[in-house]
């Protein structure tokens, strides 16, 4: 079967190795536009109980930076858009910024990256755009003078609007109006080994195209996929497509070595009546399936075998943010430190929220049983489910020729095995056994002979 890749079993082995504790590729955004947030010390304790390995701040709050000392959690701090003019015009200001916001805390607080502004390139402020590069240079010089060059990186964060074209991903290209600023910026990132940081939001892509298949594509759920004629790759989710569009754009400008970091991505659990798709069910599906996708270490089609560092948006709701309800409805945790909904981030949920197929753990409140196709599901839907499940990095070796579950060699049998295995490894939440409403939980063990379906109580 062409869809089964031999690397999956290796990826799964690495996946369970990493899942035991904090995971360096899973980060979270810690915004503070709120009047009800818990104290930084409580947040630091909360983060240590999860598999979150990185935290991004939009500023450089000393109380938060200090609270994260000796936790091992990597920290991104930010210079605001308003800081850029002074940082660009005066190296002494940049030196003072480092002296105030980095030196008192590092290395006990693991500051790893400084972001200079947020989505400045697409702000329309030409004066500010022209000052990003000088500001980055001055901060880099200040880090060098403090013997921190190479230990702490400097970058700036972009929205997906920096692209003129993003579909198909192989045609990804930057807006030519940003060309001069981007060339300077990208050369700086290349020379300093710093990442290109981007904010992809499949949620906003869905809001502009609310067809059911688009929702499934955005939520990492089974779908027909989108074929890229340029690479002959069929994309099965919007996140990979958006990130690979950035990869293609970087490559086309000659910066293949510059790494990508996802600075923000998320899905609101609530919204106004005109905000399509903003619901708890969809937020659980997007964030939960994204975390599972990152943990699989499959990567994206153009950057396979490694997960892009990704900062989920967001740690808490920010109740003072203006705008529609969705703007205040992205938090994964509540101010009382309980989960808004569970996507398997707690270390106590076992292997970082994942369950090994070889030794399923007790359900711990999760749904029990086996996830199997509903009766009457079409062959096309079964094939889509099979492609999707195996594409998420589970070990589909048992349904390959010679495997314990290869016989009977039928689409229904192979799809059932793969769907159940993905359900068992992705956290055994109800949304893990949805498959676009083509799956159901069964209390009857489908194992036979030497073919063992993980699951049960």
Written overview of the protein:
This protein is an alpha/beta fold. It contains 13 helices and 16 strands. The chain has helices at residues 7-18, 40-48, 62-67, 84-89, 91-101, 126-145, 179-192, 202-207, 212-218, 238-252, 280-295, 379-391, 411-425; strands at residues 23-30, 52-57, 74-79, 111-118, 153-159, 163-165, 173-174, 196-199, 226-228, 233-235, 260-265, 299-300, 303-304, 310-312, 370-373, 439-442. The strands form 5 sheets. An 8-stranded parallel barrel has the order 1-2-3-4-5-8-11-14, surrounded by 4 helices. A two-stranded antiparallel sheet has the order 6-7. The longest helix is centred in the N-terminal third of the chain and has 20 residues, at 126-145. The protein is globular. Mean pLDDT is 89; it is low at 1-20 and 349-365.
Quick summary of this structure?
With 457 residues, the protein is α/β, with parallel strands linked by helices. Helices cover 33% and strands 16% of the residues. It contains 13 helices and 16 strands.
What is the topological layout?
Elements: H1 7-18, E1 23-30, H2 40-48, E2 52-57, H3 62-67, E3 74-79, H4 84-89, H5 91-101, E4 111-118, H6 126-145, E5 153-159, E6 163-165, E7 173-174, H7 179-192, E8 196-199, H8 202-207, H9 212-218, E9 226-228, E10 233-235, H10 238-252, E11 260-265, H11 280-295, E12 299-300, E13 303-304, E14 310-312, E15 370-373, H12 379-391, H13 411-425, E16 439-442
Helix pairs in contact: 5-6, 6-7, 12-13
């Amino acid at each position: 079967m062409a869809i089964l890749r031999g690397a999956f079993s290796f990826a799964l082995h690495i996946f369970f190795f990493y899942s035991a504790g904090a995971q360096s590729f899973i980060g979270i955004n810690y915004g503070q536009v709120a009047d009800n947030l818990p104290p930084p010390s409580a947040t630091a304790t909360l983060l240590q109980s999860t598999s979150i390995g990185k935290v991004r701040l939009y500023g450089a709050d000393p109380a938060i930076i200090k609270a994260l000392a000796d936790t091992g959690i990597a920290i991104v701090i930010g210079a605001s858009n308003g800081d850029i003019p002074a940082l660009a015009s005066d190296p002494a200001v940049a030196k003072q910024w480092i002296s105030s916001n980095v030196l008192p805390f590092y290395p006990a607080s693991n500051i790893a990256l400084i972001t200079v502004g947020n989505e400045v390139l697409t702000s329309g402020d030409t004066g500010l755009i022209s000052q990003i590069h000088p500001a980055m240079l001055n901060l880099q010089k200040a880090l060098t003078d403090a013997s921190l060059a190479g230990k702490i990186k400097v970058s700036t964060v972009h929205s997906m609007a920096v692209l003129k074209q993003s579909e198909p991903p192989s045609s990804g290209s930057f807006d030519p109006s940003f060309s001069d600023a981007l060339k300077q910026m990208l050369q700086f990132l290349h020379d300093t080994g710093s990442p290109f940081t981007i904010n992809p939001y499949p949620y906003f892509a869905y809001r502009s195209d609310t067809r059911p298949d688009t929702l499934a594509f955005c939520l990492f759920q089974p779908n027909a996929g989108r074929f890229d004629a340029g690479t002959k790759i069929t994309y099965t989710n919007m996140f990979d497509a958006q990130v690979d569009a950035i990869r293609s754009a970087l490559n086309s400008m000659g910066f293949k070595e510059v790494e990508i970091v996802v600075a923000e991505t998320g899905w609101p659990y609530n919204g106004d009546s005109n905000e399509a798709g903003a619901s708890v069910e969809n937020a659980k599906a997007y964030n939960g399936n994204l975390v599972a996708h990152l943990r699989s270490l499959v990567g994206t089609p153009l950057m396979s075998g490694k997960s892009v560092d990704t900062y989920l948006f967001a740690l808490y709701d920010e109740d003072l943010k203006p705008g529609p309800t969705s703007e205040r409805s992205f938090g994964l945790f509540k101010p009382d430190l309980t989960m808004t909904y569970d996507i398997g981030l707690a270390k106590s949920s076992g292997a970082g929220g994942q369950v090994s197929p070889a030794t399923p753990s007790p359900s711990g409140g999760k749904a029990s049983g086996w996830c199997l196709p509903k009766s009457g599901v079409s062959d096309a839907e079964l094939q889509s489910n099979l492609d999707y499940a195996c594409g998420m990095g589970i070990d589909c070796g048992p349904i390959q020729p010679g495997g314990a579950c290869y016989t009977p060699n039928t689409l229904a049998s192979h799809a059932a095995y793969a769907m159940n295995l993905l359900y068992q490894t992705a956290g055994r939440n109800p949304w893990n056994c949805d498959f676009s409403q083509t799956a159901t939980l069964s209390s009857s063990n489908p194992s036979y002979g030497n073919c063992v379906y993980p699951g049960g109580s």
